[in-house]
Design goal:
Elements lengths: L2 H10 L11 H16 L9 H19 L8 H10 L1 H18 L6 H7 L1 H18 L4 H13 L2 E2 L4 E2 L3 E4 L5 E2 L4 E2 L3 E4 L3 E3 L15 E2 L4 E2 L4 E3 L4 E2 L4 E2 L4 E2 L8 E2 L22
Parallel strand pairs: 1-4, 2-5, 3-6, 4-7, 5-8, 6-9, 7-10, 8-11, 9-12, 10-13, 12-14
Helix pairs in contact: 2-3, 2-8, 3-4, 5-6, 5-7, 7-8
């Protein structure tokens, strides 16, 4: 096949996408502009009330354009109004997330630092905004936004997950939170944590596949918690590198034993005798 024939075939081929979404970069710009509107006040776009209102209206128009092919065209205005009506309450929840992170993390010097510099906060913000879109029944866009946050932060939170407030992510790289995960209030999660599924078959798509984490739980780095029936009881601590596929009661401490051996003149065990 010649190059011209290949291009011709591509042009006439049926799209693999269920809908025409448009430019993904528009969605990425929208979520960054929305984050900026909610939290950043030193931008020239916001230094007068008139400019702020104008930018707010521009974001509404951008949002309408993004969802135009994702919902019934007659409902666009109501969807725009519903989403933007909830922005104040979403912002209040996110401010509580930032304040809780400040209180918990000795390395944080201010809530502004958390908001501007912490990837975990950015990922949580995009999650809370995309989760609301998910609840509204908007297709495709919530996943595009969550995957954009994933690409920027290394934190993968499905917009269908249910996460309480406050929610604290420390460091964050490598965190995965699945679609049907449920997380309570005042939960702290470190880098490399997975809240995943035991059964990844397509036939289980409508089932609860991911764990439930109750209030006041801390999950340390590298822990993997799997299964829709797995419940981490309130006030529990899950240690680093724990592999958990069963429920634990409230106020449990789950950790992985570490065996300590003092080196002597004997050769190292084969499993430890490696070169990096």
């Amino acid at each position: 096949m010649t190059e011209n024939n290949f291009i011709d075939d591509l042009f006439h081929a049926k799209s693999t996408a269920p809908v025409h979404f448009g430019d993904k970069s528009m969605a990425e710009k929208f979520i960054d502009d929305l984050f900026s509107l909610l939290f950043i006040r030193d931008d020239a776009r916001y230094n007068t009330k008139d400019k702020l209102e104008s930018h707010y209206q521009t974001l509404q128009l951008s949002f309408a354009g993004l969802i135009r092919n994702l919902i019934d065209a007659q409902d666009i205005e109501s969807y725009v109004q519903q989403f933007f009506r909830y922005l104040p309450s979403i912002r209040d929840v996110l401010v509580a997330d930032a304040e809780a992170t400040l209180q918990f993390d000795p390395a944080a010097s201010s809530a502004d630092e958390v908001i501007l510099a912490y990837p975990g906060f950015y990922a949580t913000a995009v999650y809370r905004l995309s989760h609301h879109l998910f609840l509204m029944g908007v297709k495709t866009l919530p996943r595009i936004l969550s995957e954009y946050a994933h690409s920027k932060t290394g934190i993968d939170i499905h917009p269908g997950a249910v996460i309480g407030n406050p929610f604290i992510i420390d460091h964050g790289t490598g965190i995965v939170i699945g679609e049907t995960a449920e997380i309570g209030n005042n939960v702290k999660i470190y880098q490399g944590v997975t809240l995943g599924a035991l059964n990844v078959e397509k036939s289980a798509a409508s089932q609860k596949r991911h764990p439930t984490v109750k209030n006041n739980v801390i999950i340390y780095s590298g822990a993997t918690i799997l299964g829709g029936g797995t419940v981490v009881g309130e006030g529990s601590i899950i240690g680093g590198n724990v592999w958990l596929t069963y429920s634990v009661p409230a106020h449990s401490v789950v950790y992985r034993n570490s065996e300590i051996k003092v080196r002597d003149n004997n050769p190292l065990p084969e499993g430890l005798n490696f070169v990096i």
